[in-house]
From TrEMBL:
It comes from the Archaea. It comes from Metallosphaera hakonensis JCM 8857 = DSM 7519. This is Esterase. InterPro entries: AB_hydrolase_fold (IPR029058), Esterase-like (IPR000801), Mycobacterial_A85_antigen (IPR050583).
Length: 316
C-alpha cells in the first residue's frame, strides 16, 4: 500500500470569485500493483474534503485502512483511490462549474484525472461519493466517460432535500444582511459548527452552485421567505431526478451502484428511490440498496461500493 501526494497549480481555479487557493494538493492511496490499476475518484460530502479520509478516527476505520483490509481479504484487486481537495470558502462543493464559486467540475475532469491517469498509466476510472459527493458522482458519472459509479445517499429530489431547510435559515441569514456578509460572519465565528450556522452556510453554498447568476442568488426572498420561482427553477433543473433523463444514452453500459439509508436526515431516500425507479423503467442495469440507518456515520457502506467498483473497473 502506498499513499502519494501531488501538488497541482490549477489554471481553471485561478481568479475564482472567493480567492480560494488555486494550488491544490491531491492524494492517492494504492493497493496492489498501482501501474495500470483502475482509479476511483472519491468525492466528499459538504463541510469536508476528500483529504479528510486520511485522518485517524479512533471510532472507525480510515479509508486507507479499509482499502488495505479489503485488498487483504481479496474483496478488491489492484486499485488507486484518488482524493482531491475541493474545499471552498462556502464550506464545500457540488462538483459543478460555477461562475459564483469556481470551475471545480473542469478542475477534476481536465486537470486532476488526466494527471493521475498519466502517472499510473491507468485506463479505467470510476467515481464514488456520499451526500454532496454522491450528487457529484451521479452528475460527473452520467456526463463523462466514467466506467463505474457509486453514489451513497446522493442529494436528489430537492423539494424534499432542501426546501425544508429554507424557512429554518432565513432568520440567521437576515441577521447577516446578505449571503456574502453571512460568509464573512461564519468564518469569523468561533462556534461555526452550530447547526443554525451550518444549515445557513449550506444553503448559501448550494446557491453558489445551483443559482443562475455570478452573484449568490438565494432561491427565496429574505424579507418574506417567498420562493423566487426563476431561481428555484434553475435549482431543480440540476436535480438528478431531472437531469438524468437527458443522459439515458450515456448511462447505458456503465456500472451503477446506489444506496441510501431508510431514515435519511435530509429525506434523500425518496429522491434515490425515484432514481432507482427511473433507471429500472429505462432498462438501465444498476444495483440499488436501502439500509437501516440515517445520513451520518455510514462509511461502512464503502465496503460494498468499493468491492463493486473494483470488480467492474477490472472488466476489460
Amino acid at each position: 500500500m502506498e499513499t502519494r501526494f501531488f501538488e497541482i497549480e490549477s489554471e481553471v481555479l485561478k481568479d475564482n470569485p472567493w480567492n480560494d487557493s488555486y494550488k491544490r494538493r491531491v492524494a492517492t492511496i494504492s493497493v496492489g500493483n498501482p501501474q495500470g490499476a483502475p482509479i476511483v475518484l472519491y468525492l466528499s460530502g459538504y463541510f469536508s474534503t476528500s483529504l479528510a479520509q486520511l485522518n485517524i478516527d479512533p471510532l472507525s476505520e480510515t479509508l486507507r485502512d479499509k482499502l488495505h483490509r479489503l485488498h487483504r481479504e481479496g474483496k478488491i484487486g489492484n486499485l488507486i483511490l484518488l482524493l482531491p481537495d475541493t474545499f471552498t470558502k462556502l464550506g464545500g462543493n457540488q462538483y459543478l462549474d460555477s461562475k459564483a464559486v469556481g470551475l471545480y467540475e473542469s478542475h477534476l475532469i481536465k486537470e486532476i484525472i488526466p494527471l493521475v491517469k498519466e502517472h499510473y498509466s491507468s485506463i479505467n476510472v470510476g467515481v464514488m461519493g456520499k451526500s454532496s459527493g454522491g450528487y457529484g458522482a451521479l452528475h460527473l458519472g452520467s456526463k463523462y466517460n466514467f466506467k463505474a459509479v457509486a453514489a451513497h445517499s446522493a442529494d436528489a429530489y430537492f423539494e424534499y432535500a432542501y426546501l425544508p431547510l429554507f424557512p429554518k435559515v432565513i432568520q440567521t441569514l437576515r441577521r447577516a444582511g446578505n449571503p456574502r456578509e453571512f460568509v464573512d460572519m461564519f468564518w469569523s465565528s468561533q462556534d461555526r459548527k452550530r447547526k443554525d450556522l451550518l444549515d445557513a452556510m449550506m444553503i448559501v453554498g448550494l446557491s453558489g452552485f445551483y443559482s443562475p447568476e455570478e452573484t449568490l442568488e438565494l432561491p427565496f426572498e429574505l424579507d418574506t421567505g417567498k420562493l423566487r420561482e426563476d431561481v428555484w427553477k434553475h435549482w431543480i433543473s440540476l436535480d438528478p431526478v431531472r437531469f438524468l433523463a437527458s443522459r439515458k444514452e450515456n448511462l447505458s453500459g456503465k456500472y451503477l451502484y446506489i444506496d441510501v439509508g431508510t431514515r435519511d436526515d435530509f429525506n434523500l431516500q425518496y429522491g434515490n428511490r425515484i432514481i432507482h425507479q427511473m433507471l429500472s423503467a429505462w432498462g438501465i442495469s444498476h444495483a440499488y440498496e436501502e439500509f437501516q440507518a440515517g445520513h451520518m456515520n455510514t462509511s461502512y457502506r464503502y465496503d460494498v461500493s468499493l468491492a463493486y467498483l473494483s470488480r467492474y473497473l477490472s472488466v476489460e
